[in-house]
Every structure is written in structure tokens, then in C-alpha cells.
Design a protein that fits this description.
Blueprint lengths: L9 H8 L4 H10 L3 H9 L2 H11 L8
Length: 64
């Protein structure tokens, strides 16, 4: 499996700079259902994944 690029995603960077921008909102909508984002979150240490879930207002889904 290829490594996720979620950490360096340009749309995610747009969201970080301006969450109300069209591209920022598009990323936020996409992250809510994206299998790649879910896999990326599962690959992170629990504390980091929880921090990102809070920061982006996304549910915390961990596959144990």
C-alpha cells in the first residue's frame, strides 16, 4: 500500500489557512468520508489522532 499524503495535502493546507474558503470547505467535507484520511488517522499515535480530530471537528475513528 502506498503511503498517505494527507500530512502534506495542499487542500488541507488551504483549510488550515482559511477554513471558510471554498477549497478549505471542500477538503473538510472530503475528510469526513475519505478512506485515505481514515487510514492516515489510524496510523497516527492516539494522542496525535485525537488532537487532529478535535482540531478539524471530525469524529475519532480508530480501528483497533
Amino acid at each position: 500500500m502506498t503511503r498517505s499524503n494527507c500530512e502534506n495535502c495542499r487542500l488541507r493546507a488551504r483549510y488550515d489557512r482559511n477554513p471558510k474558503s471554498l477549497l478549505g470547505r471542500l477538503w473538510r467535507w472530503h475528510a469526513g468520508w475519505c478512506p485515505g484520511w481514515k487510514a492516515y488517522m489510524s496510523s497516527l499515535p492516539t494522542e496525535e489522532a485525537e488532537r487532529l480530530a478535535r482540531e478539524y471537528g471530525l469524529p475519532m475513528r480508530r480501528s483497533e
